[in-house]
Amino acid sequence: MIDLIHVSKRFGAAAAVNDISLSIAEGELCVLVGTSGCGKSTTLRMINRLIEHSEGEIHIDGQQIRRFREEALRRRMGYAIQSTGLFPHWTVARNIGLVPRLLKWPAAQVQARVEELMELLGLSMEQFAGKYPHQLSGGQAQRVGVARALAADPDILLMDEPFGALDPITRESLQDELRELQARLHKTIVFVTHDMDEALRLADHLVVMHQGRIVQQGRPLELLREPADDFVESLLGGEDRGLKEAALLPVSQRMRPLSPRLLARERIGQHASLREALSLMLWRHAERLTVVDDADMPVGELSLRRLVGERSDD
Amino acid sequence: MRSQTPGTNVVLLSLSLLALVVWLGLDTVSLAANRIVPGTGYRIDEILGWGGALATCLPWLALVGIAWRPTRPRLVLALALVVLMLSALPAWLALSAETLVDIPGARLGIGAGIWVVLFLLLLALIELRTRLVLGRLLGWGLLLPPVASAGFCLARWLEPLALWQEYRSRSDQFLGAVGEHLLLVGVAVGTSLALGVGLALAMRRWPGVQKVGFGVLNFLQTIPSIALFGLLLAPLAWLSANVDWLSALGVSGIGWAPALLALVGYSLLPMVRNTFVALEAVDPGVVDAARGMGMSRGQVFRQVRLPLALPVILEGVRITTVQAIGLTAVAALIGAGGLGTFIFQGLGQAAMDLVLLGALPILVLALLVDALLGALTDILRPGGAE
Amino acid sequence: MTDPRRWLVPMVWLALLLAATLGMGQLEGLFRWLESDSRQVIYARADFLTLLGRHLLVVSVAAALAILIGVGAAIAATRPWGRDFLPLVSQLASIGQTFPPVAVLALAVPVLGFGTLPIIVALLLYGLLPIVRNTLAGLAGIEAGVMEAARGMGMSRGQILRQVELPLAAPVILAGIRTSVTINIATAAIGATVGASNLGDPIISGIVNGNTAYVVQGALLIGLLAISVDSLFSRLPMSGAR
């Protein structure tokens, strides 16, 4: 879907991005992560040609992005940034309808789409449609930003630290919503962040960048288990790695079928992470948990030994 | 995206080409037999012939060449060239005087060509100074050679220059006028500084004063100066006719009294606004910290708020002074004296050089004050000049 | 926004201006008392309505040209192709602020001669500066994220200029135009000394002839004009919908 082939970007003599190759499959959520100045934002902005790449080729659906007119290219990709970039002189509804109007959709269709998106992002039409950006909270503004990026139903969504300026609770809930949205809409998303927890939580495909190069890429678990070098390891949180890994694995992966023994008193949902299970055990001084399904029916059990035991092969 | 190698400096290129056209196309000087008759204009080819005229184009062409492919050393060379050309302008006037003036008492006027070229050269100087990132002081230093050259040429060869003749025929009056001008500006700015700071402090304490005060001052500022001078005329005339000690002081409807009153009135708004904003704008975190450390209100004001606000207050003084220099020129209309006198006398007599004798020093004064107070503000800013 | 009462204050000032212009003759008694020595106490070389009209004409022609050129120049200097000129233009605009308007007017006369034209040119030149400076400031003051988003959404340069940059910079640009016009109303009056006939006439003539009544008449009308125009501007959306 998106292919970067030996792409570099030079500003004068300095290379901001140095010979990176990256392939992002359709419907994949790819997270670029790294310290500030590592070239992750530059990489993102090269995809919609806000920055022109100096060397290499970038393809969208097999076509070189230089083949498209800049504006046409950008209108078929959603773009959301940390500062939201909402137009302060436009209402929320008008902001969301920006790209459809640029694409000359009929007014009624734009209106319908705006309503649909506000619904999708949990923004009530009566309450927010007529508001101006400065009347919104940070989380609300970011929702509007995402709605605006999704407005013309683009296949690709580019997000540059969209949740970076939000408080932890809002950030987490928006991360969850993004995952849900992604599961429903199957967009191809390129997401830039410097927050490794956010990256691990969101990524299907995790790309660690350092000094303009890709130092490692793959699935989050692969990186956690086999960091390519010390830099990736320290970025992944060193001694916290066990907990980070546990956060990525669902309870269902380690549980055993129900045994004839008495059910343990403490219960945990099968979709919860091993990290949550561990936390519950520590808190309740319990060595065993009963795993329940969505209907709160016991489906298995998880012991501390299983939890910390050998890795299941996946 | 533009390439990173230094491309053509479009600004310098257009300035040089434009200056070249002006230099060849407009009158550089004009010659008049006496003060009354209008002068005849001379283009450069009419003085030097086409050969000589084209020879004077060489430095311009050099500038064009440098602008085409600028590198830092070449831009330094261009800067030197511009300073040299600025210094050469008075010499060119001297040369014209030597060539053209044959009868005594003839007057040499500076033509539109020279003014425009002077303006373009100054623009080029600013552009080069910006490109080469030179400091403020050095920028001003670059003007020394041209000024020295002008002084030298005036003393030696430029006796027929009309502007210079106007000056010499009233040099005492000129110095007196500069003195009056500065005195009026100084007293007005001083008074409004004292009143302004007091008013700003009162405004901080009583919000009512703030509302009324800014209302009145804003209103005052919208009234054109000439109208305010005019409107003060009647009440002051009445006062001086009816109050003996005021007329003994020299207060009357015409003269320094209405001028000073109006100047103070106008100066108050920028002064109060800047002082007020400066005191208000101090980071509340800093003030909070100062209080938290146990500083008293007075200590916070004297040791924290005031020093931090000082640069902005000085900014107000700068704006006010520059504005007052211009307004004082208008005050000459109601007989307050100062450099404006020459402007209005000159306009009355259609003697353009007399107008220049008034207008040019006012311009220079405004620029100088602006630069000096600007530099002072930079020094007082915590952390020194940027 | 559409409340008609917000236009009440400017309308009152305008009405006062018109009343004073047309009804100056009715105040003869007052001016007679003010200037008891003179035979004539109402300025009569031209009627006040004509003077007001000429004053307005000169100021509006200069303002229209200054807006056109000033906003245009500032926009040009902030486009990619004109960015080379930006440092020079912005420095010029800030240095030019220190030039006293009277000096600019006085310098225009030797070059352009007496009459209405030099006044328009001088007003135009001087009026350019605040407009250029404020347009530059307004455009520069737009949050970087907003511009980034506008480009990222695929707006063309023209669309960004018309739909984002100009509307967001409008309050600051309008403030510059207000300053420019206010200064020019005053400077135009001084233009009466270089042969333009306008509301400055009675003042100059009154000062020359020692007739305080003339001075007060001219001063009153210019003052009312300046306040009316300023109050009209103050009702425009200076602070925008932020």
UniProtKB/TrEMBL annotation, chain A:
<dbReference type="InterPro" id="IPR005892">
    <property type="entry name" value="Gly-betaine_transp_ATP-bd"/>
</dbReference>
<keyword id="KW-0813">Transport</keyword>
<dbReference type="GO" id="GO:0016887">
    <property type="term" value="F:ATP hydrolysis activity"/>
</dbReference>
<keyword id="KW-0997">Cell inner membrane</keyword>
<dbReference type="Pfam" id="PF00005">
    <property type="entry name" value="ABC_tran"/>
</dbReference>
<dbReference type="InterPro" id="IPR046342">
    <property type="entry name" value="CBS_dom_sf"/>
</dbReference>
<dbReference type="GO" id="GO:0006865">
    <property type="term" value="P:amino acid transport"/>
</dbReference>
<dbReference type="GO" id="GO:0031460">
    <property type="term" value="P:glycine betaine transport"/>
</dbReference>
<keyword id="KW-0067">ATP-binding</keyword>
<keyword id="KW-0677">Repeat</keyword>
<keyword id="KW-1003">Cell membrane</keyword>
<dbReference type="InterPro" id="IPR027417">
    <property type="entry name" value="P-loop_NTPase"/>
</dbReference>
<dbReference type="GO" id="GO:0005524">
    <property type="term" value="F:ATP binding"/>
</dbReference>
<dbReference type="InterPro" id="IPR017871">
    <property type="entry name" value="ABC_transporter-like_CS"/>
</dbReference>
<comment type="similarity">
    <text>Belongs to the ABC transporter superfamily.</text>
</comment>
UniProtKB/TrEMBL annotation, chain B:
<comment type="similarity">
    <text>Belongs to the binding-protein-dependent transport system permease family.</text>
</comment>
<dbReference type="InterPro" id="IPR051204">
    <property type="entry name" value="ABC_transp_perm/SBD"/>
</dbReference>
<feature type="transmembrane region" description="Helical">
    <location>
        <begin position="245"/>
        <end position="269"/>
    </location>
</feature>
<feature type="transmembrane region" description="Helical">
    <location>
        <begin position="48"/>
        <end position="68"/>
    </location>
</feature>
<keyword id="KW-0472">Membrane</keyword>
<feature type="transmembrane region" description="Helical">
    <location>
        <begin position="354"/>
        <end position="376"/>
    </location>
</feature>
<feature type="transmembrane region" description="Helical">
    <location>
        <begin position="75"/>
        <end position="94"/>
    </location>
</feature>
<feature type="domain" description="ABC transmembrane type-1">
    <location>
        <begin position="178"/>
        <end position="373"/>
    </location>
</feature>
<feature type="transmembrane region" description="Helical">
    <location>
        <begin position="137"/>
        <end position="158"/>
    </location>
</feature>
<protein>
    <submittedName>
        <fullName>Osmoprotectant transport system permease protein</fullName>
    </submittedName>
</protein>
<keyword id="KW-0813">Transport</keyword>
<dbReference type="Pfam" id="PF00528">
    <property type="entry name" value="BPD_transp_1"/>
</dbReference>
<dbReference type="GO" id="GO:0005886">
    <property type="term" value="C:plasma membrane"/>
</dbReference>
<feature type="transmembrane region" description="Helical">
    <location>
        <begin position="214"/>
        <end position="239"/>
    </location>
</feature>
<dbReference type="GO" id="GO:0055085">
    <property type="term" value="P:transmembrane transport"/>
</dbReference>
UniProtKB/TrEMBL annotation, chain C:
<feature type="transmembrane region" description="Helical">
    <location>
        <begin position="166"/>
        <end position="194"/>
    </location>
</feature>
<dbReference type="InterPro" id="IPR000515">
    <property type="entry name" value="MetI-like"/>
</dbReference>
<keyword id="KW-1133">Transmembrane helix</keyword>
<dbReference type="GO" id="GO:0005886">
    <property type="term" value="C:plasma membrane"/>
</dbReference>
<dbReference type="InterPro" id="IPR051204">
    <property type="entry name" value="ABC_transp_perm/SBD"/>
</dbReference>
<feature type="domain" description="ABC transmembrane type-1">
    <location>
        <begin position="52"/>
        <end position="233"/>
    </location>
</feature>
<feature type="transmembrane region" description="Helical">
    <location>
        <begin position="214"/>
        <end position="233"/>
    </location>
</feature>
<dbReference type="Pfam" id="PF00528">
    <property type="entry name" value="BPD_transp_1"/>
</dbReference>
<keyword id="KW-0813">Transport</keyword>
<dbReference type="GO" id="GO:0031460">
    <property type="term" value="P:glycine betaine transport"/>
</dbReference>
<dbReference type="GO" id="GO:0055085">
    <property type="term" value="P:transmembrane transport"/>
</dbReference>
<dbReference type="InterPro" id="IPR035906">
    <property type="entry name" value="MetI-like_sf"/>
</dbReference>
<comment type="similarity">
    <text>Belongs to the binding-protein-dependent transport system permease family.</text>
</comment>
<feature type="transmembrane region" description="Helical">
    <location>
        <begin position="12"/>
        <end position="34"/>
    </location>
</feature>
<feature type="transmembrane region" description="Helical">
    <location>
        <begin position="102"/>
        <end position="129"/>
    </location>
</feature>
